[in-house]
Amino acid sequence: MGGNPTIIQGGMGAGVSSWRLARAVSELGQLGVVSGTALDLILARRLQDGDPGGHMRRGLERFPFPKMAQRIWQAYYVPGGKRESESYQTLPMPAKKSPREFQELCIVANFVEVQLAREGHGNAVGINYLEKIQIPHLPSLYGAMLAGVGYVLIGAGVPVKIPGVLDRFADHEPATYPLTVSGAQDGDDTTMTFDPREFMERALPPLDRPKFLAIVSSNTLATSVCKRANGRVDGFVIEGPTAGGHNAPPRGKPQPDGAGEASYGERDRVDLEKIRELGLPFWLAGGYGAPGKLREAMELGAAGVQVGTAFAFCAESGLKEEYKSTILASVVSGEARVSTDGLASPTGFPFKVAPLKGSLSEREVYAARPRICDLGYLREAYRSPDGTIGYRCPAEPVTLYVSKGGKRESTVGKKCLCNSLMATIGHPQARKGKLIERALVTSGDDLPGITRFLPPDGLVYSATDVVAHLLNG
User: Fold this and answer.
1) Domain with residues 7-320+449-472, CATH architecture
2) Which of 206, 282, 395, 466 has the fewest CB atoms inside 10 Å of its own CB, making it the most exposed?
3) pLDDT digits (tens, 9 = 90+) for 32-78
């Protein structure tokens, strides 16, 4: 791929932006992006489901450290797949001092996803992470770089330390990353360290340093990233509040509606003149999945657009087919709507939710689910009274959260996104053969606009249809 892509496919949800989708988009000469969220868990569950199609095995066979790949295969592969009522293995929960098993799984899983997305073409592939999910960053980035990832895109935080990590890993040098710890005091050890040489089974030549794009919601944040970054910043994705997944909180005094829906106003508009003054390429995101919006973005000085929702429901996305077809049917019938739930996410960020019968978008389904936190990607690190680092999540049992110093009011309306997003891509945990985790589908506000990609008599469209429509109208 020469120069900047016109279209960046959004890194939606855990596993929705799968290797299949990213590969399909990159084959078309645009930037396909895999979601890096919880790839360790996704790989483990794909293997426990019997690795349909043998794709995970193919990726593992290309991993440069075969002993590590073999350990992963032996630990998780279930010939023929586990029974539907059988539980998936419980993995180590992310922690500052994560066991080697967790780190190896992060390295290998990120490698496999990027490797498969790069298969069969010579164009760049990107990977998207949430800065707030900090603990997996270092081993995950190294694994993605081993696979030759071309772009790293990071939002939901201030990723000023990522560029330096990319610089270090290009030479297989150790890198550090700061862990945000609530209540930390001067002198506390909150730094995570990862040394690639502790995991390498043989010497490797230097790796290509991927381009780094920060996903931001304001010109102030873009300017801050430029000033504070510890390495080269290659551009920005400017994401508005209509984009799917996590959104930046509204600026000014919050004015949620009665259902907890976040409201955005004039203060949430980005000053693109100040963005242009930074002199770096930028892409606009959030409601830009239409040809007219692509032209508008480029007239405003953007290199192009990032599009999520249109790709999230196309044939190649990782969204479970049953959920995909149900929501697309609601789009055709004119019943589709998206809300911005200001309470759902344990992160405190507003989260876009598409209604789906039987999912956690329904209050009675949410109320019936026991509060269980056993994956832990969105846990908050905090300083315990004895000075050690503890972990808590406002979606865990209320009494447990409060016992760790959390505020009871912070638990209201909180949903276990970790478990529900695994269910959304077809890997729901089964608990004692009875409780099956329910999905929670996210989408941008442009969900009703998907009709522009649908054929007159069907509910199936492809990534090729999306790219062609955006470029050609």
Assistant:
1) Alpha-Beta Barrel (3.20)
2) 206
3) 999 999 999 999 999 999 999 999 999 999 999 999 999 999 999 99
